[in-house]
Amino acid sequence: MSPSARTYLSQALNIMEKHSLLRHKVDWSDLRSRAYSQARGAQKTADTYGAIASALNSLGDGHSVFWEPDVAKERYGASAVGLDGLEGRSLRNGVGYISLPGVQGSQEAYDQYVRQGRDAVAKAGAAEACGWVVDLRSSVGGNMWPLLAVVGPILGDGKVGAFVDANGEESVWSIRHGSPHVDGELVGWGDNQPLAGRTRPVAVLTSRQTASAGEGVAVAFRGRPDTRSFGEQTNGVPTGNKPYRLSDGAVLVLTEVKDADRTGRAYDAPMPPDTEIANNSRPAARNRDDVLKAAQSWLRRQAACRRP
């Protein structure tokens, strides 16, 4: 192996050993031995990519990933994923509906997502809604903070969750003035329009595609009063990743923390909903949304949404 390739691989392995969520459970001597063996003869940094990806996979967190330079450039490009699915509308019986797809991209993309999302909440009747449906079924991952910046007023101010690292140390998520904070520091986007009156009931919709950042938002609603989840269990990676850009533009995306709800319960596996409703793929059911129907039925039974 060339000195440059060895240095590159060693730096990637050092990042994993220092920061991985499961670092206390890994035999690092064995993992390093296997990585160097796989990369034997490597001359360029690119020759070590397979060994790095294999090492990440062997950590066992199910969430860490390695992006080669071209993929990393695309992931952090100006375009955002999922803006077409960002939707707000008013349902019958005074219920507001907001759909939050995942978003991944540049800061410009996140800013656009927050602007469009906050407009969607206003369109759904932020001031008048008796309750809310928060649809996370197409929230497949990306950055959690733009999503929380949109639904902050629906969540309500206060602690809504935390990241928990390998040593049990917490970084607390909170909502203040409708916007997300970490350990008291504003993440971004400034104050959001608060919802007047008391806390509204919320139905959260999840599916097997709800993953990563989407699961983080689902966690933020866990333990919230007057809240119930509907649909299918989530994908199973309610954990937080941090990207490390390597010298040639590749990015090592490493799982470093678990998500925990406001009660302190931490998650690292699929999360079942309170009311499980399997996806019905039969032709007769394709235009029928049983999950949304069940959520609306529950909301109509809550005191805030009952009609004389």
Q: What number is the mean pLDDT?
A: 92
The main pleated sheet reads as: 8 strands, antiparallel
Q: What share of residues are in beta strands?
A: 15-25%
Going by CATH, what is the homologous superfamily of the largest domain? 2-enoyl-CoA Hydratase, Chain A, domain 1
Order of helices and strands: HHHEHEEHEHEEEEEHEEEEEH
Basic shape: elongated
What is the CATH architecture descriptor of the largest domain?
Alpha-Beta Complex
Report the strand count: 14
Number of helices: 8
Measured distance between first and last alpha carbons: 77 Å
* Proportion in helices: 25-40%
Structural class computed from helices and strand pairing:
alpha/beta
CATH topology of the largest domain: 2-enoyl-CoA Hydratase, Chain A, domain 1
Unreliable residue stretches: none
As for the number of domains, it is 2
The CATH class name of the largest domain reads Alpha Beta
Rg measurement, Å: 21 Å
Explain the layout of strands and helices.
Elements: H1 3-19, H2 28-38, H3 49-58, E1 65-67, H4 69-75, E2 87-90, E3 95-99, H5 107-123, E4 131-135, H6 144-155, E5 158-164, E6 170-176, E7 179-182, E8 185-186, E9 202-206, H7 213-221, E10 227-231, E11 239-245, E12 251-261, E13 266-267, E14 275-276, H8 290-301
Parallel strand pairs: 3-4, 4-9, 9-10, 10-14
Antiparallel strand pairs: 1-12, 2-3, 5-6, 5-12, 6-7, 7-8, 11-12, 12-13
